[in-house]
Amino acid sequence: MMRRRTTLLTGCIAAALALGATACGGSEPVAAGGGDKALDGQTVTVAGVWSGSEQENFQKVLDAFTEKTGAKTQFVSTGDNVSTVVGSKIEGGDAPDVVMVPQVGVLQQFAKKGWLQPLSKPVESAVDAGFADVWKKYGSVDGTLYGLYFKAAHKSTVWYSPEALTQAGVEPPKTYDEMLEAGHTVSDSGLAAFAVAGQDGWTLTDWFENIYLSQAGPEKYDALAAHELKWSDASVVKALTTLGKLFEDKQLIAGAQKGALNTDFPGSVEKVFGPEPEAGMVYEGDFVAGVAKDQYDRTVGEDADFFPFPGVDGNDAPVVSGGDAAVVLKDSKHRAAGMELVEYLASAEAAAVWAGEGGFLSPNKKLSLDSYGDEVTRATAESLVGAGDSVRFDMSDQAPAAFGGTKGTGEWKLLQDFLRDPSDPKATAAALESAAAKAYRD
After folding, report:
1. Are the beta carbons of 272 and 186 closer than 8 angstroms?
2. How many domains does the chain have?
3. Distance (Å, whole) CA 418 – CA 248
4. What's the average model confidence in pLDDT over 325-343?
5. Do residues 379 and 427 share a domain?
6. Which of 165, 379, 404, 406 could be 399's S-S partner, Cβ–Cβ 3.0 to 4.6 Å?
7. pTM attached to this predicted model
């Protein structure tokens, strides 16, 4: 995999693919299942894409597990290429016990290769009791539960500068048409409406997915995600036409198409929340807040806020999500201890550890909203959990990497081409279908 969406960026950190610190408990440990130090002396190795502050915050969750069970933990940061790194470790006889898998497609790949241990009955019971059915569906392959979604992203949030919208005299819009209308008003006041991160193809897939889910509905979304519906379908052409109206409007996009194609995700956040703003709004997931807060010292809820991605053509507002699922590898040395860790991660107690640190959403409806540190994050979490089974997982994350997850090819490149010239949605849809057919066939 060539990209990571729910992990906050900074490629310089990704280069340091080193082992995380080993965590040891300090107080009298009690086993998660109620026994006495059942895992004392064992070390659970966990692999995942997280680095920087995300890795540090996850380590606090692992530390809490240590105090509860006596097990030590060791975190290995894989970078974006999770499947390659994990595959090489399995072949070398050094499989981690638990992997935090960032895409549905990768989870399915691991399961079909026979790498995964089905999750235990206690985990399945916790999922049934605390999670919407859709999360169990995305964690399962052929009816068997392999993945527990611990961390989620809400990818239907439009972030804005309250100062910019107030100066333009506009309120957060309720419909897609109102959003474009508000964008023109913002533009008339001196700023572009949107900063679009066209240099990163994954952001463009997210734009498309939100429009498509609202406009075409969840059934067609599911069919297109599974390639049971062709990308040349009229519903795809319609969504591209809607998206094209934004892309072609030079008033709405900072720097117009050329500027967008030269803007990466961090740059798009900077254009709204940096020291010299160029736009009033930026669409992306809840993780925008972390960049605005950490990089530009914005106070979330005061000078950085969001509104839900609005419904299109009078339809319901979409809720697109992503997430990281904990899986247990069959060939690991401490598989039973790894399963104990996943049982712990399925609890509201574990989720509360990271929720209190920020930069985290849980799909676990048993986690109290009071666990989150600010009102904006609470509102985002409430929207995600409240959407229940209407949540849909990021479509490109469900696709083969050759189509939905590789820089310079497939959906990423074709939507960048469409941003450059959105004049022929039907031709773009046909090109998407050609690329998808090849990727799903291979």
Report:
1. no
2. 2
3. 10
4. 96
5. no
6. 404
7. 0.83
